[in-house]
Amino acid sequence: MALKGRLEAEGITCYLKNEFTTQLMNYLPTFEVELQVYESDLDCVKEVMRF
Fold this sequence. Notes:
Blueprint: H1 2-9, E1 14-17, H2 19-24, E2 34-37, H3 42-49
Antiparallel strand pairs: 1-2
């Protein structure tokens, strides 16, 4: 995921919820991958996403 890489390059810790579940069970459309960040990093994330 490009956004995850960009956030990590800026030093922001982030996680992909359900990343491996969707790889193992790709025939079930009910699992969505969700990018998660710490609430304390939210302002930094918004700044990175502006560009």
